[in-house]
Amino acid sequence: MITSHPAPVTAPESFWVTSAATCGYAGYHKVVNATHCGCWAHLRRKFVEAIQVKNKGDTSTTAETGLQYCNKIFDIETELADKSAEERYTTRLKLAKQVLEAFWAWLDSLHVLPKSKLGDAVTYAINQKSYLQNYLLDGRLEISNNRAENAIRPFTLGRKNWLFAITPRGASSSAAISTVLWKVRKPTGWMFISILITSLP
């Protein structure tokens, strides 16, 4: 569980925070000198959820339109995957910015039930507007936190097992071992672990 920090945290200059599907978690805003970048994967997921709960007789395409806008943003990023940060920056301003402008204008024209799944998606997008478009500020920034979430998913899937550490000391040891294991998942990882274990006093 993430908890709010009691006091602002000072971040290094040019520090960026990418929201990890946190519904606009307020704790990020306590970090001083940081630019909060919203997660487009989280927004896209909300439009997908809105589509999934539609009644069979509902012919509205509003949720689908929202999803299409999100997909356009991701499609542009796919094309820029192998480009330099400078190229991503200039191309985003040329292609993505106009998609974003159309998306915000479309959102402003909507009238949806605020407590519906679609209303949740629209409200989230509007409230997170400034953060969702902050990725345009620097070509090094990503539009979602998917890579970080995918990296920790295998570990979090076993979190119920971690409850059986028995003692705080056991939990600390388990955390240390897990940290090493997840840091060295590359082909050379086991070689590193072998050297580490044989070198320990």
Query: Major sheet: size, sense and barrel closure?
Result: 2 strands, parallel
What is the number of strand segments?
A: 2
Strand content: 5-15%
Per the principal axes of the C-alpha atoms, what is the gross shape? extended
Low-pLDDT sequence parts: 1-13, 19-23
What distance lies between the first and last C-alpha atoms, to the nearest angstrom?
Answer: 35 Å
In round numbers, the mean pLDDT is 81
Helix content: 40-55%
In which order are the strands of the major sheet placed? 1-2
Number of helices: 8
| Integer count of domains | 2
- Rg (C-alpha, Å): 21 Å
SSE sequence, one letter per element: EEHHHHHHHH
Structural class, from helix and strand content?
Answer: mainly alpha
Structure explained in plain terms:
The protein has helices at 40-52, 62-79, 85-108, 117-127, 129-132, 146-157, 168-183, 189-199; strands at residues 9-18, 31-37. It is mainly alpha-helical and 201 residues long. The protein has two domains: 9-148, no CATH class; 158-199. α1 (40-52) runs antiparallel to α4 and α2 packs antiparallel against α3. It is extended, with a radius of gyration of 21 Å. It starts with 8 loop residues before the first strand and ends with a helix. Mean pLDDT is 81; it is low at 1-13 and 19-23.
